[in-house]
Inverse folding.
C-alpha cells in the first residue's frame, strides 16, 4: 500500500504501471488471463485519470481499499482483505490474543458503555466494571466525536490509556490510567460439575490451544467424579479447523475421518482424521448448539452426530461449511480466501447458502432441495442449512416481544438502575429478581416510552393502508380495525405474560454487573432450558441410547 500511495502522489508516474501489467500477460493465450490483464490495465488507467483530473484530492489508500471491498462483495462474505491497520485484529481472531485492557464496548442510547469486563485483566484491576460509561479516551470527548472507542482502547502493550468514566452509582466522573497488556482470551470459559456425575464445559472459540483447554477441563472434571458431560458450543463462531479435529479426537478413537475439504485447486483437497487414541471414547455426551454455532463448532457437532457419539440439543446451527486460507500480501496485508467446502463423515456439507449464484440473491437451501445421509447407526440426517439438533429447544429470543426489548438494550439499562440501589446481591447461584423488582421494571419500561406492535398487528395495519388505497368496502375496513384492536394486548399485560422470561434476561444482566461472565454461567446453569434438558437426557440412559440408536448388550 505504501508503494501505491507513493505512485499515486507523483504526477504522471502511474502510467509506468500499465506496460508492466501488459508485459506480465502479453504472451498468454489463455482468455481468462487476457481478460485479467486487460481489466487490470483499465483499472490502473481509471486510478491514473482520477488522480490527475478529479476536482478534489483523492486518498489513494482509501480509494483502492474501497475498490477491493467492492470486488470482494461479489464473493462470499468470508473472503476478506485485511489492510495493515487491521492485521492485529485479524491475528487476535486466530490466536485469541490481543493488546488492550480486556473489555467489550457498545453504544447504547448514544452513550458508550463497557458491556463486558474480563476478570483479572488490566481494566478490571484498574476498577472498571460492567456498566461503566466511557466519557473520554485519551482526552477525546466521545460525545462530540464520531470515533470507534474499541480502536482507541487497543494499543501496544506497555502503553498508558487515559480514560474518564462515569459509574452507574456515582454522579462525578472519574479519571483513570490503565497500562495495556497482552490479553489472552480463553477458549474454555467455564468448566464445572452441574450434578454429582455430570460435568459441563463451555467452549467459546476454536482458537489456538482450544483442544488443550478442553482436555485440561476434562481431566479436572474426571478428578471430581465426572461420568457424563454436557459440551456447550452455543454462540461459538468457530476458528481453526485443526482445533476442531483435535477436539473431536478427545471423544473418538484413532484414524476416524473427521472432515474432507474439496475445492478448485486439487492440492488443497485434504482429508483430516484423528491422530490419537482419544481421551474418553465412551463418555456419555450431550452437545449444545444454536444458530450462532458456526464453522469449526459445526464440524464438532456434525461429527459427533455422524458417529452417533453425542445427542445434539438446541437449535439448528448457522450453516457455514466453507474453508478459508490466508495469503500474505505486500506491506503486511493479508487476503483470506474461501478455497473449499468441507464434508463431514456422513458425506454431507452443511453450507446453508449457495454463494456461487450470488446474482440470483443467495438464499438458504429449502428443505425440499436437501439430500438425506446416514449416520453410523443409520439415522437419517440432511445436508445444507446447518446441523439440526436431535432435540429442539426453542430460543426465547425468537419471540418478537422479547427480542424487541432485547434489541433496545432495555434489560441492560434496567440493570444499571438496579445497580444504583443495590450495593450487594445474593451469590451468583442464588440470585433471583423479586416480584417488586419486576414491577419496577414495568414502570421503567413505561418511562422509556417503549412501544410494541406484534407482527400480526403490523400486517393488519398494512392491509388497512392497502384497503384505503384500493377504496375497499368501509365495512371491511371497520372489521380490520376491530380485529387489530382485539388482537393488541396492552404493554403491561404483555410484560406480565412474559414475566418468567423477562426476569431471566434481567437477572442475566444484573449478575454480569456483580459476578462477570463466570458468575453469569454459575447463575444460569439451573435456569437454562438447554442445560436442564441435557442433564435430563444424560440421566435417562434408555432415552439417550434410543436417540442414538445404540444397542446395549
Amino acid at each position: 500500500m505504501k508503494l501505491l500511495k507513493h505512485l499515486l502522489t507523483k504526477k504522471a508516474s502511474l502510467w509506468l504501471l500499465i506496460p508492466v501489467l501488459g508485459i506480465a500477460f502479453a504472451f498468454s493465450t489463455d482468455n481468462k488471463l487476457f481478460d485479467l490483464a486487460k481489466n487490470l490495465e483499465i483499472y490502473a488507467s481509471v486510478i491514473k485519470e482520477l488522480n490527475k483530473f478529479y476536482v478534489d484530492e483523492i486518498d489513494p489508500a482509501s480509494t483502492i481499499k474501497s475498490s477491493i471491498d467492492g470486488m470482494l462483495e461479489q464473493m462470499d462474505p468470508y473472503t476478506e482483505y485485511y489492510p495493515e491497520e487491521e492485521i492485529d485484529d485479524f491475528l487476535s481472531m486466530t490466536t485469541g490474543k490481543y493488546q488492550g485492557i480486556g473489555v467489550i464496548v457498545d453504544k447504547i442510547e448514544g452513550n458508550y458503555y463497557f458491556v463486558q469486563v474480563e476478570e483479572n485483566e488490566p481494566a478490571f484491576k484498574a476498577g472498571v466494571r460492567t456498566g461503566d460509561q466511557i466519557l473520554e479516551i485519551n482526552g477525546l470527548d466521545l460525545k462530540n466525536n464520531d470515533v470507534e472507542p474499541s480502536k482507541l482502547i487497543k494499543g501496544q502493550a506497555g502503553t498508558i490509556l487515559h480514560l474518564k468514566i462515569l459509574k452507574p452509582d456515582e454522579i462525578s466522573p472519574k479519571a483513570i490510567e490503565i497500562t495495556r497488556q497482552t490479553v489472552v482470551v480463553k477458549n474454555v470459559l467455564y468448566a464445572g460439575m452441574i450434578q454429582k456425575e455430570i460435568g459441563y464445559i463451555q467452549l467459546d472459540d476454536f482458537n489456538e490451544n482450544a483442544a488443550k483447554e478442553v482436555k485440561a477441563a476434562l481431566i479436572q472434571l474426571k478428578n471430581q467424579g465426572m461420568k457424563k458431560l454436557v459440551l456447550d458450543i452455543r454462540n461459538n463462531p468457530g476458528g481453526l479447523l485443526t482445533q476442531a479435529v483435535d477436539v473431536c479426537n478427545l471423544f473418538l478413537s484413532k484414524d476416524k475421518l473427521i472432515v474432507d475439504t474439496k475445492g478448485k485447486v486439487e492440492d488443497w483437497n485434504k482429508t483430516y482424521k484423528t491422530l490419537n487414541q482419544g481421551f474418553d471414547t465412551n463418555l456419555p455426551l450431550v452437545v449444545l448448539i444454536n444458530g450462532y454455532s458456526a464453522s469449526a463448532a459445526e464440524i464438532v457437532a456434525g461429527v459427533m452426530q455422524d458417529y452417533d457419539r453425542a445427542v445434539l440439543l438446541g437449535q439448528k446451527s448457522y450453516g457455514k461449511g466453507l474453508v478459508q486460507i490466508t495469503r500474505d500480501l505486500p506491506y503486511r496485508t493479508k487476503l483470506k480466501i474461501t478455497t473449499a467446502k468441507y464434508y463431514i463423515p456422513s458425506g454431507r456439507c452443511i453450507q446453508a447458502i449457495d454463494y456461487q449464484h450470488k446474482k440470483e440473491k443467495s438464499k438458504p437451501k429449502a428443505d425440499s432441495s436437501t439430500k438425506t445421509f446416514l449416520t453410523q447407526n443409520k439415522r437419517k440426517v440432511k445436508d445444507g442449512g446447518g446441523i439440526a439438533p436431535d432435540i429442539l429447544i426453542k430460543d426465547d429470543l425468537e419471540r418478537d416481544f422479547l427480542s424487541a426489548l432485547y434489541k433496545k438494550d432495555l434489560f441492560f439499562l434496567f440493570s444499571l438502575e438496579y445497580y444504583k440501589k443495590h450495593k450487594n446481591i445474593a451469590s451468583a447461584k442464588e440470585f433471583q429478581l423479586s416480584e417488586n423488582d419486576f414491577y419496577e421494571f414495568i414502570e421503567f419500561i413505561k418511562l422509556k416510552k417503549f412501544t410494541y406492535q406484534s407482527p400480526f398487528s403490523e400486517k393488519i395495519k398494512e392491509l388497512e393502508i392497502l384497503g384505503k388505497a384500493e377504496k375497499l368496502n368501509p365495512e371491511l375496513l371497520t372489521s380490520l380495525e376491530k380485529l387489530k384492536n382485539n388482537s393488541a394486548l396492552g404493554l403491561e399485560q404483555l410484560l406480565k405474560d412474559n414475566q418468567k422470561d423477562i426476569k431471566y434476561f434481567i437477572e442475566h444482566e444484573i449478575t454480569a454487573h456483580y459476578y462477570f461472565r463466570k458468575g453469569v454461567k454459575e447463575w444460569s446453569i439451573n435456569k437454562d432450558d438447554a442445560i436442564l434438558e441435557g442433564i435430563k437426557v444424560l440421566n435417562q440412559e434408555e432415552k439417550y441410547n434410543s436417540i442414538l440408536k445404540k444397542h446395549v448388550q
